[in-house]
């Protein structure tokens, strides 16, 4: 029997029929597919970048109004705190009402992108793009604990699929564009191109082929070029004085990963339980329930504006050392509950940014505890534990360690923490797996199958070939 190696060639070096067929499938339509992906990336950079800018502007506008109203009430018949609650309720209720036009636009949207990749759902309709854009701004402007990356990823997927349809690509290539161009959305959301590529291969498709890699990188390259030409290339978080960690304390990062692996499993269960409680609450319209959550967030923004929002500002405060231990502990409790409650409303918004804050908070608390116990040969660096904590908690929740490591490195620029990041993320994955915790997007996809069986986004026709 002729022996064949992994590349489809026999011992004489000639290509076998199997290898030739694989090569033919790689190059078939590759150039137009790559050009369309690059073209789609341009729109991802424009739309994703403008979405990020609008979120920052609307959030600043809302917090500015609250600051002004604390000094001078806008109306004698209505106190400022009540107006803040009314605005929060109205915005979140409107955001939730948009979901009626496209149920697949609910929440993060990443689970729907994964369902498309698994041929369990059709690509989201074009109307999802404006719903995610407008609904995301309405939901996050008043301070909901949601992330911009979820809507940006799904909007990017829609852009890729529409470009594939207009270009009249093969149906299988249209599906590939939907999932591959989604990576450009994550890249634009966090200015993290490598993490966007890793997310496509590790989490969305869960396999890597040369064809998919070329398409994904083409979309990310053009999307990031447009984004950075308008919005610059600054890292998300600024840190100072973090150096390569001594080998004597590397075991502490394994301990941090163990802790966050357990917390990640618990957080996932809380997210799904929160959504179930919201759905099974007294039979009132989901818009009213979402409005109640929005009112609570608006009231919290009036009392403690430093507690609300996606979480980026709080992470920077942690890195700057601006918070006391008591404040950090209380903020952890608040943000854990707030993240669960806000996501349960079903308004457009992601999970990444809020869970990064939870990981950072646990990280700094662990560093403080280790230093207080004095069980290491030298003090551990709280800033390093904050950075590693973000990545390890992301890994425990999403179960995508490569993405988590690259995401945090690109957001902070701290390549010096690569080894601690690897150690903590490995420990987090092992613990979360041993505890039989399901990755969050698998849980959300299972729930989507049960709660949206007749959704237009769920497939009834056979999957495409290829």
UniProtKB/TrEMBL annotation:
GO molecular function, one term: voltage-gated chloride channel activity
Keyword annotations of the record: Chloride, Ion transport, Membrane, Transmembrane, Transmembrane helix, Transport
Membrane topology of the entry: Multi-pass membrane protein
Family matches, as InterPro entries: Cl-channel_core, ClC
Protein name: H(+)/Cl(-) exchange transporter ClcA
GO cellular component: plasma membrane
Annotated TM spans: 30-55, 75-95, 126-145, 175-201, 213-231, 251-272, 284-303, 323-343, 350-370, 382-402, 414-435
Gene: clcA
Pfam families: Voltage_CLC (PF00654)
Keyword field contains Ion transport: yes
Domain of life, source organism: Bacteria
Cell location: Membrane
